[in-house]
Design brief:
By secondary structure, the protein is α/β, with parallel strands linked by helices. Helices cover 32% and strands 24% of the residues. The longest helix has 16 residues.
Length: 450
């Protein structure tokens, strides 16, 4: 008897969310292939695992009669392969909708927020996995403990997933437990205004199962007074779950956790920053709901190595520190720089930022300028357009001209390495959600060779 081959095809297979789904279905025994615009470390990893990927639009590479074609909003509507699938009646499904379907089979923990969701997702997944709970997790970054964006279990008890507000994707989820870490204005190309974004988060909260729990950054409590079962967290005495006695030891943040009659002492995070303490509290809130004890939580937090490109310390010597971060929103930049200035007081900091999206640069030019001003030297690269077409009059100079700073520059990517070699600094910080990530390893090699 001939075995029926079940084939799933991915349009945009190299995306962080798409690549995890591709791995997931390969693990289930599907034949998986796909298209992406450019090769990357993620596509190379997929190819090494036996997936067939091509990088030119070619309808002849689409498998005949695939079970489904998965795509993301990042695929432009005039993409030849997407157009062909639409005209041919091939079953099409968005990545977020497919993830929502998969999650219906499990106890789902969904991590939402305009900032912090990738780190919190990775933390929750690690705490559960490290404690021996059967966990499948889709992470929006590479978790350093596992060197992957997908944690798999054949006997899944808990399904952990990042809930992305872009394109209203998180409204495909109906979790048992949800985290909302932040609701700052963002994605105003999708949402009409900040109020519309907040309404979407409110809708997401209403999709939590009736007996479920919302875990919430304490500053957001006023928005969710309607929610029956809510646990707040924060570095303040107004939160249900608190970080107390925060101190710095050997360039690491150390703190205690207090919640009702539970107290966990001497948490020592490998990833620094007040914002990361809050991320850890969110993860603790989730795992307390799922039955982890204080010892399991402490062991998990102390062994968590972080996520690539999230306050990713690449070099840490007495004479030089190099940190790379995914920060691409003014609030994320502010938090990252604040953490560095706390840990490395009186050190000269050179910050390199690549703006992500023309629309985000247009909407937050003044806020970006303000958030970057605490740096000693500021370098801006050209805007990374991602899915967008240029907007007239919007360039990286839109940020630079708003900045009250005596040492600021626009630098082309081709000239960046020479700029780094010829400038003095104690701490180098690279930030952005675009292809600046591809420069991190070369920069690290240059710094180590100097």
């Amino acid at each position: 008897m001939t075995r029926v081959v079940r084939h799933i095809y991915f349009l945009g297979i190299g995306g962080i969310g798409m690549s995890a789904l591709a791995k997931y279905f390969k693990h289930l025994g599907y034949l998986v292939s796909g298209y992406d615009l450019t090769p990357s470390m993620l596509t190379k990893q997929l190819e090494a695992e036996g997936l067939e990927i091509h990088y030119q639009e070619d309808i002849n590479r689409i498998p005949s009669n695939p079970e489904m074609v998965v795509y993301t909003p990042a695929i432009p509507p005039d993409n030849a392969e997407l157009v062909f699938c639409l005209k041919s009646g091939i079953p099409l499904i968005k990545r977020a909708a497919l993830l929502g379907k998969i999650s219906q089979e499990y106890t789902t923990i969904a991590i939402a927020g305009t900032h912090g969701k990738t780190s919190i997702t990775a933390l929750v997944a690690h705490l559960l996995h490290h404690a021996g709970r059967n966990t499948t997790a889709f992470i929006g970054g590479i978790a350093k403990n596992y060197q992957t964006n997908l944690i798999l279990s054949d006997k899944t008890e808990f399904f952990v997933v990042e809930a992305d507000e872009f394109d209203h994707s998180f409204l495909m989820l109906h979790p048992t437990i949800a985290v909302i870490s932040s609701m700052d204005a963002d994605h105003l190309d999708i949402y009409e205004n900040h109020a519309a974004l907040i309404l979407a988060f409110l809708q997401f909260s209403r999709q939590i199962s009736p007996d479920g729990t919302l875990i919430l950054q304490s500053r957001l409590k006023s928005h969710f007074a309607h929610f029956n079962k809510c646990l707040s967290y924060g570095i303040d005495n107004q939160a249900d779950l608190q970080a107390i006695h925060v101190r710095i030891r050997d360039h690491r943040f150390v703190f205690d956790i207090k919640h009702a009659d539970i107290k966990i002492k001497d948490i020592c995070l490998q990833v620094p920053g007040a914002h990361f303490i809050e991320n850890a509290l969110a993860a603790v809130g989730v795992t307390l709901q799922l039955g982890l004890n204080a010892e399991e939580i402490k062991n998990g937090l102390n062994t968590f190595m972080g996520v690539e490109r999230r306050f990713d310390i690449r070099i840490n010597t007495d004479g030089l520190v190099y940190i790379d971060d995914y920060a691409h929103h003014p609030e994320e930049i502010r938090s990252t720089i604040a953490a560095i200035k706390t840990l490395y007081a009186n050190k000269k900091i050179l910050g390199i930022f690549q703006p992500h999206l023309f629309s985000r640069t247009r909407d937050f030019a003044k806020e970006f300028a303000k958030s970057l001003e605490p740096l000693d030297t500021v370098v801006l690269l050209d805007i990374y357009p991602a899915r967008e077409k240029p907007i007239a009059g919007i360039t990286s100079n839109s940020i630079l001209k708003e900045m009250n700073h005596k040492d600021k520059s626009l630098v082309a990517k081709d000239d960046l390495f020479d700029f780094i070699k010829t400038h003095d600094f104690d701490v180098l910080l690279t930030m952005g959600a675009g292809d600046i990530g591809q420069l991190v390893t070369p920069i690290e090699q240059i710094l180590k060779s100097c």
